[in-house]
Amino acid sequence: MSRIRIGWASRDISTDLPVNMCGQFFMRISQGVHDPLTVTALALENNGELAVLVSGDMIDCRSHLLDTVREEVAKRIPGFPAEKILLSATHTHTAASHVGGIGAISILPGDEFPLDGVEIADSDEYRAFLAAQITEAVCEAYEKRAEGGVSYGYGYAVVGFCRRAVYFDDLSEREGVVKDSTHGVDGHAKMYGNTADPMFSHYEGGSDAFVNLLFTFDENDKLTGAIVNVPCPSQCSELETLMSADFWHDTRAAIREKYGDIFILPQCAAAGDLSPRQLHYKQAQERRFQLKYGDVETKMQMRTRYLMRLDIAERIAACFDEVYAWAGKEIDHEPQLGHEVRTVTLPKRIITEEEYENAKKGYAKELEAPFRYDGTPEENLYANSTVMSKRGRYMRVINRYEQQKDEKTIPMELHAIRLGDVAFASNQFEIFTDYEHRIQARSPFIQTFVVQLAAQPERNSGTYLPTERGLWGRGFGASVYDNIVTPEAGQIIVEESLKALEKLAEE
User: Fold this and answer.
1) Among 42, 62, 61, CA closest to 51
2) Vertex 53 angle, CA 48 and 56, to 5°
3) Do residues 377 and 116 lie in contact, with contact meaning Cβ atoms separated by under 8 Å?
4) What percent of the chain is helix, strand and coil (3-state, nearest 5)?
5) Is 205 in a helix, a strand, or coil?
6) Cα(437)–Cα(427) distance, rounded to whole angstroms?
């Protein structure tokens, strides 16, 4: 067995352009940069096998971003196996949109969308910049490969909390409830539901406290970087209009304060039903922050959410310290590397006749909603982009109904990577945490890092993949509007991931 070769690189993917920032049901135009957005690449090579793991401070990976990166890398490095690039997003809601055009969530052909008085940069320009920066990082990481070693371990840091509250009664049956709201169709479950409600029963899922860590070293066993795999999207600052890597910026800063300017590659593990917000201890949290941090000045609009970031960063950094203290004692310079890339076929969530008819009625109703012209440019943009978002929400269901007549499945590129006794398994969704536990519990490897929101060839990444109990509870994240596949597809991902991992374990 030969010694492993390791290369790192990173690039700043921030922009001063006034671009749309995805992640809500309305447009937010960037007003500058609070902290840098970063893309980080790690190239691993041993015995002729290659794996390039890339993570970006993005909400997801869309609009052929992966295709562009792979094509450009292949042009610059002849013979490079471009399919071995695994690109994923941290799911920050304060990143620049790289969706085509101005980047609104749901601009439809033929719709006129008033933008009077608001300057919005074309996100095609940003996407070209983003793809170029990712390409540069991948090429540099590959070119800088040098002999080194790796170690691994896990620790505990509660970052993500279940955001789906479950009730004794069906919320859609309550008097005066709008059954078909912007955020989905609530049932016994509701995302970010009111836990002070007398009918609140429990959270649908639990928190996942595991943080998986992979450390890299140079030939002299000096720490050079780490993969930090956390089951939580980075969306503390999700409503802001300043670009930010969210808690990952603070986490990088906290770790580097002790270990120097090492590379940090963040990965969002399965977290479709998790977020950094805890729902039932809000007053206690405010007291905690007041006594712990005092009156912190910040450019961010929401003090509490900014302090959530600092609090999370401290927890992850403390976990990093604890794990490195013992995992760093065992450095492997000759880990076996394997990389399986396969396409799996997933059944679509079939739109029923009733859902189709409801979508047509909803779309017709939203077409009657007037655009606003009497407010400030920002107020008009908020109102009008919300109108467009609602229209698009219904139209996507209508389009899916038509498409499913001929296409009842979708392909998904799945990566399984072995590095000694550690493995990685990817998927394109905001996948609920139960699926990760199913994979990890049956994996043949000591530790398995699940990576969600992995970029796909041609197709977009993203959309929620709920569990069986999630589909029963309904609500945002488990409705026809935000699921293109069903829990059946989730279990297929589990089984196909395990097949790929087992194959790598036998090699």
Assistant:
1) 42
2) 160
3) yes
4) 35, 25, 40
5) coil
6) 14
Tokens of 224: 């050079």
Task: Fill in the amino acid letter for 199.
Answer: M
Compute the Cα dihedral for 393, 396, 398, 400 and give only its sign.
Answer: negative
CA dihedral 352, 353, 356, 362 (to 10 degrees): -120
Residues 6 or more apart whose Cβ sits within 8 Å of residue 271: 91, 160, 208, 231, 232, 233, 430, 433, 452
| Contact (Cβ atoms closer than 8 angstroms) between residue 387 and residue 366 | yes
Q: Distance between CA 459 and CA 66 in Å, rounded?
A: 9
Residue 51 contacts residue 35 (beta carbons within 8 Å): no
Length of the chain equals 507
Provide the pLDDT for residue 108: 45
The residue type found at 140 is: E
| Per-residue CA distances from 379 to 26, 31, 268, 374 (Å) | 11, 15, 33, 9
Phi, psi at residue 347, to the nearest 5°? -70, 135
Name the residue type at position 249.
Answer: H
**CA–CA distance, 426 with 288 (Å, rounded to integer):** 36
Distance, CA of 249 to CA of 240 (rounded, Å): 15
Distance of alpha carbon 14 from alpha carbon 56, whole angstroms: 11
What does the DSSP 8-state code read for residue 352?
P
Extract the residue ranges of the chain whose pLDDT is less than 70.
1, 101-114, 179-184, 297-301
Cα gap 69→54, rounded to integer Å: 11
- Residue labelled with tokens 């006594």: 291
CA distance 184 to 192: 12
pLDDT score, position 105: 45
How many Å apart are CA 202 and CA 182, to the nearest integer?
A: 24
pLDDT value of position 113: 67
Specify the 3-state DSSP secondary structure of 75. Answer: helix
Q: Max CA-CA distance within the chain? A: 71
* Tokens describing residue 296: 């912190």
Question: Buried b vs exposed e over 225-238: b needs ≥16 C-beta within 10 Å?
Answer: bbbbbbbbbbbbbb
- In 3D, which of 129, 124, 60 has the Cα closest to residue 455? 60
